[in-house]
Design a protein that fits this description.
The protein contains nine helices and six strands. It has helices spanning 2-8, 33-50, 56-63, 80-85, 87-90, 95-102, 120-140, 158-166, 217-234; strands at residues 70-74, 110-115, 148-152, 170-176, 187-193, 204-210. It has a six-stranded mixed sheet with strand order 1-3-2-4-5-6, sandwiched between helices. Helix 7 links the parallel strand 2 (110-115) and strand 3 (148-152). Helix 7 (120-140) packs across helix 9. It is globular. 36% of the residues are buried. The mean pLDDT is 86.
Length: 250
């Protein structure tokens, strides 16, 4: 029976390597009922992820282990509805948050920002585990880490405002990625050298799909640390900075 299936659909062996919906089979001219129901369930999970919220109390407790100040800041988006309708507001800090950050004017190297993005649940599940590996790497390499920032209703570019306010040389934002129909728990890390308002996406590097079924924390932390080190060495990030780790002459 298995050999017969392989003959009719050569994509079946690829299912072991991806969560994407391939080799679904069919019943007449339609896909099987089981696959239809699983699609609807995944769509529901994706919608739930978009409206999920940061577990701020739990994150605060977990982040205390790093012996760094933890700041709770907010974008100019006043609600989730406002955030989804006005992406520009999610990229800007509100005035109270700027005043809060202004109290910290030490000479920091790296700011780490944790934002809900389009899937707070992804951040709730993955951020602390990644930081447990990444922060010791940064401190062992003598990078001075700024206060950790928890951001509600934040988008990627809000890290430019936070990094600029803290006067850091480098920003890392961990943020929930747009949930797909097979990865509602995917977190991304966006890295920017010399962050400041007005930067656009070509100035950043991205390490994507950080989650247990995607890019594991160990690999993600090593990749981020490599990019941080190269960014400081070359004084840039974005299109000019490639992930050449492990390549001959890289």
């Amino acid at each position: 029976m298995k050999n017969e299936l392989l003959k009719t659909d050569p994509l079946i062996p690829l299912k072991a390597f991806t969560d994407a919906r391939i080799a679904l089979g069919r019943v007449g001219s339609s896909i099987p009922l089981k696959e239809t129901l699983e699609f609807k369930l995944a769509h529901a999970h994706a919608r739930d992820a978009v409206y999920s919220t940061l577990h701020t109390e739990g994150l605060f407790e977990s982040l205390k282990a790093f012996n760094l100040p933890v700041l709770h800041v907010h974008s100019k988006a006043v609600s989730r509805h406002n955030y989804l309708k006005r992406p520009d507001l999610g990229r800007q800090l509100n005035e109270q948050s700027f005043e809060q950050l202004a109290e910290f004017n030490d000479l920091f190297d790296v700011a780490i920002i944790i934002a809900d993005g389009l899937s707070a649940e992804a951040v709730n599940e993955n951020a602390v585990g990644l930081l447990q590996l990444l922060i010791p790497m940064l401190t062992a390499a003598d990078y001075k880490v700024a206060p950790l920032c928890l951001v509600e209703q934040g988008r990627v570019a809000i890290a430019d405002n936070i990094g600029f306010a803290l006067q850091v040389k480098f920003s890392i934002i961990l943020i929930g990625e747009r949930p797909g129909l097979s990865a509602a728990d995917s977190m991304g890390a966006y890295l920017t050298y010399n962050p400041k308002p007005g930067l656009t996406d070509e100035c950043r590097n991205c390490v994507s799909n950080i989650r247990p079924q995607g890019l594991p924390n160990t690999i993600a932390a090593n990749k981020i640390f490599y990019l941080v080190s190269e960014a400081f060495r070359r004084k840039l990030s974005g299109l000019g900075l490639k992930d050449n780790e492990g390549l001959i002459g890289g």
